[in-house]
Amino acid sequence: MENPNEYSSYSYLEEEEVHLQDYIAVLLRRRKAFLLAFCLIFFGVALYTFFVSPLFEAKATLHVRDEKVKGNGLLDDLGLSRENPIETEVEILRSRTNIEEVVKQLHLNWGIEKSSEDLDFRVLDFSSTAEEPAYTVEILENRRYRVTDADGDLVGEGQSGHLLKTGDFRLLIEDIKGQKGQEFDLTLLPFNDVVRGLRENINASEVGKGTNIIQVSYRNNDAEQASKVVNTLANVYLERNILLKSEEANKSVEFIDRQLQSVRKNLDGAEEQLAAYKSDSGVVEMGTEATSLLELLTGKEKELASVELYRRQAQFAVESLQDAMAQKKGYVPAVLMDDPVVASMAEKLATLEVEKRRLLIDLTEMHPEVRAVQGQIMQIQQKLLSTYQQLLSGLSKQADTVRQDLQRYEARVRKLPAAERDLARLTRRSTVNAEIYTFLLQKHEEARLARAATISNVNIIDPAIVPDRPVKPQKAKNLLLGLIVGCMAGIGLAFLLEYLDDSIKDGELAKREVGLPLLSVIPHIGFDRKGENTKALMQSNVSRRILISQFRPKSAAAEAFRSLRTALHFSSLGREKKVLLVTSAFPSEGKTTISGNLAVTLAQTGNRVLLVGCDLRKPTLQDMFGGADRGGLTEILVGDAKPEDVIKPTGLFELDFLPSGAVPPNPAELLESDRMRNLVNDLRTRYDVILLDAPPVLAVTDASVLTSLAEQVVWVLAVGGVSIKAARRVKEIMDGIKAPLVGFVLNDKNQEGQTYGRYGYGYGYGYGYYQQDQQEVSPGIMGKLLGRFGGKGE
Phi and psi of 641, rounded to 5°? Predict the structure, then answer.
């Protein structure tokens, strides 16, 4: 057996299924919010795109070659080396030291702003220690200029091409081309701030993985300046790379230079003394023994000089290795690289450095695995240090041995005859110094060539050129993004407002919330500004609304009122339904318009209908039918008039109208009085239908009082004008006073009902059906009708 509850639940879910037209309906309903958000974003992006200063980008491409350790088979197979990885090279390129050099070379901390268009000059030197280093330079006659500070005080006057120095202020300007009185502003920007800002805007990254190609880029509003910055940075990086790699060769050259100067001085002195001795003593030759001893001494002196030079290189290697260990850096000196043991340790050290860099991608320096690898690196570096220290110790012992041999040979020389001994001593000094000088010259040339042969592993492939097109703003892209983001923001705002809006938007929602049947949906009633009928009506003071049921009987709205009439008829079959009350939750929901048109629709069936304006606080029904000057309901209730004196025929079928009359101070008391009840009972005998236009329920208590006089209560709900809480409150009030509430009428007074998707109300079908042969009321008939129910505009 089929479960009715399951069927009901399925039907409810089916009704709640969301369709595309529901989303479109939300956008149409919230079109103002959508357009506002869209316009703000799109036009904001457009203004930014067309008014922002263009930004140019200069790029340079560098190639960093791998320099592999000889014999590093494992690293060669992996394509790795003991040199710093490309990420390290990128950081070195962007280092603060390099950026500082760029700022110094290009004088980026000099702020120069020209105030004269045809003024030209070159600033070669500018420095100041003032707290506010801002100056104004004014051009004088004869290529002179005057400098004033920010307070307008004179700093000094200078001449083009000559240094102006006053205290801590220095300025050198050349090639001044301008007229007297022209000036420009000169500011010294904070050096560290300029360096920091430039470093943040310098971008450098590897082009592709493993290519060892670095692309450097910089953006600036000045295209030429952007190109200069990139090229200067590339050159500074290249020069520093060469300087670092030739440091060891530089140390050797400097040491040999100092030794050469000393030996050269000794050689000159020895040669002069030898020549003087030969001239004074007449002894020009030595014996065979003295000559042999001289050759031995010369060889030992040359050997000692070679050992000392090698010992000096070893000492530099030990110092450099100790510094690297203190800073936890990988370093292998060039000395002894041909030794198999040292080469093997260098290979292991490079392998561990690669492993450490791999671990540091995901781990920190304090991770146990990283610390373990670092410990192995320290062990190998310690072994290398021990090896070089042993080498240094061995060289010191070797030098001591050579010195001992020299002392032994010198002892044998002292046994020679005095004249031969003196000649041998002077000849030895001259010969030894000459041999050492020749040896040092050879080593100096080797060191110089080694330094010159130090080639940087960095090549500038493509230097930066002056860009001819800006990279920002990208107008087409920006406008497209503005269009997309504007649409997204508009849609988001529309759905946000829809989510926050808890008003009743359609009949299905209203039926679920208030539990009442939907009697009819009244479409938007507007003025047809193309027709003469409406023009005549607009010019009349009789009505500010259209009685659509009479003047456009075949319109969708008129059909909706006829549908309402039918619904009311079938809602009270077998019961008396003479008194009908129309109310709403709040003012301005279209209650009065519906009351007037419903009264006309009821009268069209031949019934005698009386429309009573019961809104004594804010009467508007009389604006539709006139008659306010003749008194009304208020006058009857206070005893100043009789019903037959103030009830007026409208001239529309059997429809009469009782206006509200004057606004009393106590409307609720009057409507609740016995006179009001007696009046309604008396009118029941005269009319078939009495339609009461009551005030809003939530605004005042008048409607609650009048419900006791009616057999039917119709509740008017404006589309989007009543919240769910307010609707529930109205229902609670009606249930509390046991009002004969037969249903509600949904009024699309603001033309919002057309945007509620599949919950459209059906009036579109009837409107299309009648539109084909619809005939308007002629101007003559309308004039007669207006005249019959008291028009003042005739």
Answer: -155, 160
Counting every residue written for the chain, the total comes to: 794
Segment 710-757, tens digit of pLDDT: 888 998 988 888 888 888 888 888 888 888 888 888 888 766 555 444
Q: Which of 564, 568, 571, 569 is nearest to 593 (CA)?
A: 564
The two structure tokens encoding residue 478 = 């920006």
Q: How far is CA 708 from CA 610, 692, 694, 738, in A?
A: 18, 12, 12, 9
Q: Provide the pairing of β-strand 579-584 with 689-693.
A: parallel
Answer yes or no: are the C-beta atoms of 436 and 263 closer than 8 Å: yes
- Distance (Å, rounded) from C-alpha 289 to C-alpha 427? 14
* Amino acid letter, 622: Q
Contact 443, 309 (CB under 8 A): yes
Q: Give whole-number Cα distances, 481 to 42, 45, 49, 52, 366, in Å.
A: 8, 9, 11, 16, 45
128-135 long-range contacts (CB < 8 A, ≥24 apart) are 128/168, 128/169, 128/170, 128/188, 129/168, 130/168, 130/169, 133/187, 133/188, 134/185, 134/186, 134/187, 134/188, 135/185, 135/186, 135/187
> What is the number of other CB atoms lying within 10 angstroms of the CB of residue 577?
18
HEC letters along 493-557: HHHHHHHHCCECCCHHHHHHHHCCCEEEEECCCCCCCCCHHHHHHHHCCCCCCCCHHHHCCCCHH
Q: Up-side HSE of residue 471: CA atoms within 13 Å toward CB? A: 14
The SS3 of residue 483 is: helix
Question: Would you say residue 47 has pLDDT above 90?
Answer: yes
Is there a contact between 373 and 285 (Cβ–Cβ < 8 Å)? no
Q: Which residues have CB under 8 Å from 508's CB, separation 6+?
A: 15, 759
Q: Return the sign of the alpha-carbon dihedral for residues 495, 497, 500, 506.
A: negative
355's enclosing H/E stretch is: helix 340-359
CA distance 419 to 281: 8
CB 426 within 8 A of CB 283: no
Across the beta sheet with 648-649, the strand order is: 518-522, 741-747, 712-718, 579-584, 689-693, 609-613, 655-658, 648-649
Please report how many Cα atoms fall inside a 13 Å half-sphere around the Cα of residue 685, on the Cβ side: 4
Torsion sign (Cα): 293, 295, 301, 307: negative
Which range has the worst mean pLDDT, 252-256, 544-548, 620-624, 738-742? 544-548
Which stretches of 79-222 are DSSP H helices?
A: 86-93, 96-106, 191-201
SS3 percent helix, strand, coil of the chain, rounded to 5, is 55, 15, 30
Query: Residues near 536 by Cβ (< 8 Å), separated by ≥ 6?
Result: 779, 782, 783, 786
CA nearest 761: which of 525, 561, 523?
Answer: 523
The Cα–Cα gap between 611 and 598 comes to 9
End-to-end CA distance of the chain: 71
pLDDT at position 778 is 43
Distance between CA atoms of residues 592 and 694, nearest Å: 9
Strand-pairing partners, residue 62, are 214, 460
Of 611, 614, 580, 609, the residue nearest 743 (C-alpha): 580
Q: Are 560 and 523 in contact (CB under 8 A)?
A: yes
Query: Tokens 């709040």 — which residue?
Result: 586
Q: Tell me how far apart the alpha carbons of residues 481 and 475 are, in angstroms, rounded to a whole number.
A: 10
Runs of H (alpha helix) within 605-652:
621-625, 633-637, 643-646
* pLDDT tens column, 554-569: 888 888 888 888 888 8
Which sign does the torsion angle of CA 600, 602, 607, 612 carry?
A: negative
Cα 747 from Cα 564, distance rounded (Å) = 12
Q: Is the peptide bond before 467 cis (omega within 30 degrees of 0)?
A: no
CA distance 680 to 678: 5
